[in-house]
Amino acid sequence: AQSVTQPDIHITVSEGASLELRCNYSYGATPYLFWYVQSPGQGLQLLLKYFSGDTLVQGIKGFEAEFKRSQSSFNLRKPSVHWSDAAEYFCAVGVISGATNKLIFGTGTLLAVQP
Amino acid sequence: DSGVTQTPKHLITATGQRVTLRCSPRSGDLSVYWYQQSLDQGLQFLIQYYNGEERAKGNILERFSAQQFPDLHSELNLSSLELGDSALYFCASSVEGERYGPYEQYFGPGTRLTVT
Questions:
Q1: Using the 8-state DSSP alphabet, how is residue A72 labeled?
Q2: Which of A3, A76, B43, B76 is the most exposed place for a label (fewest CB within 10 A)?
Q3: How distant is the Cα of A107 from the closest Cα of chain B, in angstroms?
Q4: How many contacts does A have with B, using Cβ atoms within 8 A?
Q5: Considering chain B, what percentage of its residues have pLDDT values greater than 90?
Q6: For residue A30, what is the DSSP state?
Q7: What is the pLDDT of residues B15-44, one digit of tens each?
Q8: Considering only residues 2 to 31 of chain A, which have any Cβ-Cβ distance to chain B shorter than 8 Å?
């Protein structure tokens, strides 16, 4: 069955420090991978996506993610975190089954940024 | 702003009642997805509509139903509400067409439902 694992429930980093959020997926076919961010009281905003091609993808707000098929991973990175990055981050795999493109989400990683 | 709108933002109701959540997709998007976000279940896919037709069902209870109207807005109907239905309900829209393939989904701000 398809699944997404985000092993870190909560991460705290200092402002200006680098960030890496982990994501592992389980999917039998070619994975279509996404990272979304949810700020308090807000909806989900798409940060970046991987469909094919270059395994290092750039997203909005200075985020990037690297797809590693051998490790079934799609980790999210940012070189220097800003206080406004404090939010919950969700990794998702897009499942194409029949006529649908549903998303299966991980449980999320809550990021706190300390000054 | 994703371009997807949802109303109402908050809804408080009692057990046994029925509510309707509304979603308007981004301009030009034919596909609407509904997701439920709860503390114990996380984010789960409920149902998808494409151009007025139901396309896929996920973990949607029989007490829940949805439809998509000719103007492409969608409504999620929740009936015989239970305490456990309290959650954040998201609508997402996608530009996908007849050709199947990966498409990104854009999410609305959600409707927070509290059942008391």
A1: T
A2: A3
A3: 6
A4: 66
A5: 84
A6: -
A7: 999 999 999 999 999 999 999 999 889 999
A8: none
What does each C-alpha distance from B17 to A102, B55, B75, B80 come to in angstroms?
29, 27, 16, 5
- Cβ distance of A100 and B107 shorter than 8 Å: no
Neighbour-count burial of B83, counting CB atoms closer than 10 A to its CB (0-12 exposed, 13-18 middle, 19+ buried): exposed
- Amino acid B33 reads Y
pLDDT higher for A31 or B96? A31
**Structure tokens given for B78:** 């929740």
